[in-house]
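User: Show me a protein chain along with its predicted structure.
Assistant: Here is one chain, sequence first, then structure tokens.
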Amino acid sequence: MLVGVVVLGVLAVGAVVKLADAPRSRQVTPTAPPTPISYWPSAATTGVPAGTKLRDSGALSLRTDNQVVTGLNITGCVNVYARNVRITKSKISCGSPAYAIRTMSTAVNLVVEDVEIDGLGRNGVTICCGNYTLRRVNMYGMTDGPRLGTNTTVVDSYIHDLARLPGTHNDALQITGGVGVVVRRNTLQVYDAATNDPLNACLMLGSETAPSTRNLLFENNYCDGGNWSIGVRTDLVGANIVFKDNKFGRNYRYGIIARPDQAGIIWENTNVWFDNGRPVVP
């Protein structure tokens, strides 16, 4: 009986040792797998759909509500004065130092869809300044992409090959004030690989022309380049400016976001590096 007790005691001690030696579980922050660049818009998925026949046109001044412009090869710029105008399946080639498309104060709810905009290496700004939606638009050859303002949306679009001219500070997107902005699932390729030039910013934020910049959602975009990829001016008066689920390249000059602690900026940890899926810590 005594031997049996001893044996049982040894077995008990052995069991305790095994439990003590078992590795403890530890929490590891998961790394999101890198997303293929083909997920974001490109020349193949934006602009005039393949097979579309275009008719030549000069510059346009659109003054009729609910007008639809489609299938045009527009040589010149477009001014929009009316409500609910739609420009689709067309190419715009505008070398003006001002705007390829301008929404005037009377324009409301302009939609630009499946359009290619060529700035010819001279155009100043793709579109300005409010009350518009861009969808599947291929934009290049201008010093700045869209100028965002009140009630503006840019989705599923491709902004690339900006024109570097003397003294320019090229931004894929810029806002100088406004309310109600959505920037979602766009390719914002600011970095110029041919010249190793990061240019200025994927998005430049300020409040120079309006009291504030509020309710801006920047999500699920690919952004590469910029002095700061997200530039934040000291004059920004902001509220509810949200960055989430974006992927960032590393071809910037200084960093991903300037002044991330500026009032109104909300930076979520779902913003990650494109190459490894790890969170970008501003």
